Amino acid sequence: MRHALSIAVxxxxxxxxxxxxxxxxxxxxxxxxxxxAMDAPAVADQPSEDIPPATAPTPVPPVAEGTFAAxxxxxxxxxxxxxxDEVRAVWGGELQGNxxxxxECFHLSPAGQSTPAQFALMFGxxxxxxxxxxxxDRVAPGGGxxxxxxxxxxxxxxxxxxxxxxxxxxxxxxxxxxxxxxxxVIVFETDAEGTVTEWRVGLAPYVDYVEGCA
Length: 214
What we know:
Helix content: 10-25%
CATH architecture of the domain at 70-208: Sandwich
Organism: Novilysobacter selenitireducens
Keywords: Signal
Protein name: Lectin
CATH superfamily of the domain at 70-208: protein yfey like domain
Number of strands: 11
Region (Disordered): 20-59
CATH topology of the domain at 70-208: protein yfey like fold
Signal peptide: 1-19
Structural class: alpha+beta
Strand content: 15-25%
Order of helices and strands: HEEEHEEEEHEEEE
Distance between the termini: 140 Å
């Protein structure tokens, strides 16, 4: 009887040893070269903080090609102090306007404009004294033009701008003094929203006239 029990115990131990060898560790569980499993980091679909919308300056139309150069002493080939005939001779295009004989103040404008006010040359006492523009294609000396904000004009002509209320609207006149001893002045007119609607360059008192020749 004891002999039978001993044989049974030996058989049980042998079977357990064989089973342990077949059910050993997996190929990767005990492999020291295998990297440990890691949970993938969570990716947020949206930023954690609110991002304000992008802001941009008021758009200004591009300058047309071929626009003539504006200066503090004149424009294109014309200079302050020239007579109408002298300006016509150097302008390089037709200037429209037929001032009455003996008229002290009058305007000439390039042919082909939709309105004379898009760009105009003012003559006082027979001499060129001012030019003005309502077209966004025309750029004043220093870079200012129609469509710009009043704050941009102040920054562009830093320390040279004097503002005064507009005579007819809720806007302002931004008067820019010249540099390097220039007697000419730039005047930008703005609307109630502070946007430049027109500008002019000229000699006092003509540059400050708000009704053409008055």
